[in-house]
Amino acid sequence: MEPVKTEDLAAAAVAAVTQNNATQLTPEQITAAIKKEQLSVIDYKMVTFSLAGKDYAIDIMKVKEIAKAGHFTYVPNTMPFVLGVYNLRGDIIPIIDLRLFFNIDVEERDPDALENVLIVTIDERTFGIVVDAIDKVVGIQKSSIQPPHPLFGDINIKYIYGVVESNNRLYILLDIDRIFGLQSESSSEEKAEIQPVSHAINAPAPESSSENSKDKGSANAEKASVETPKAEAKKDDVNYKFVVESLKNFRKFSSSSINEKWLTSRFSEWTNEKGSDKTQLQNEKDADEFLNPFYSKCNGTWWSKGYADAIYKALPENSAKQISVWNPGCGKGYEAYSLACLLKKRYPSARIRIYGHDIDLLSVSNAPLLNVPASVAGDWYGPYLSKTVNGESTFDKSVKDMILFEYHDCVNTNALPVVDIIFARDIVSFLPTESQNKLISDFGEKLKGNGVVILGDNESLAGRDGWVEKKVDSISTFSKQ
Question: Which of 77, 186, 143 is nearest to 408 (CA)?
């Protein structure tokens, strides 16, 4: 149904009032007549509910039913906002706590209490959504829905379809398709791709064809055009451009502002080493030699005490009871376990959760079983280790319980809560330029206001809008402005 225009309503209202009255109408009479006419034109209905004392709504066409439910079956290794699954008359459906999804504080649950649940169906998939209280069905005129505004900042604006006033109450109308990641990418209203919440239950991300990946590329991302350096001296340098293109082809390393400073410096070194007539990269071996100085200290191996101490100093003060960390590119687990030990030392009173993601299925599957060699066990890791029945050293249960290893693509997976720390060393540069921009945007959305991003030693967000760099000794951290 086409929305009814205000001028059409005015004409209809005036006609209705003046049908049997030839006298001139006052402005107040016209306004009252328009409001009366608007009430009779309802082309959109929404189910209203509350979260943390605020009024929200969703399209009634998405709501299958309203229920009181509880005793959900817990599913291990799921996102914090997934309460579990529920048997709805024979159908097993995931239950999502919308309050936790939007990072709204929730009081401790009574295990015997029943929750207010909206059962929604989206593209033939059914979910249960837990809210504070369910109010009523409200009918409105669709044309009265206003665009979302950043002032409604309790939740990410991309999850808001619009705002609407009805009976002196302002409702935030949620875009339920976006929340569950099912909105078409071709939609003209699409702002960003949201990964389905259902992936937090059991749906893995598409498998990458790369055999040498440490989550360094998206299996589905299209190749993006290479950015040439901004430095004027390099724009016309054919040899430099050839090296940039070769790195992309051989090792999926994409030139961008993230690594431009290192790349131009390394090219100068390379030219001095090889000679100006021998700078071309002929094969993967040449590309690996060129990139060898790029990788961060202790990349893909156990952390030295010196490096662990440097990261410790760079971590910000944080008195939160719950600290969440995103570690894309966790690989075989060396990095995630090292980070877990360090965070346990840095924030001893906090409950820490690390989301270790990678697209190397074999590595991420074996990471929970990682043992520690004797040469490492005697180092700074010692207080966080225990012995197996075979006498081998392994991380104790408290450390292992901190880490959730998952097979996920850092570009296409967004079903995460907001986090305090993003630890993504030497990952961003190995994505196409378009995917780099998307991931950095995702960092900004997922990071708390006082959170930090730590990239590789030769990667930087300095100069990017919205980011501030802080350097502590050799470690750079980046936070939102």
Answer: 77
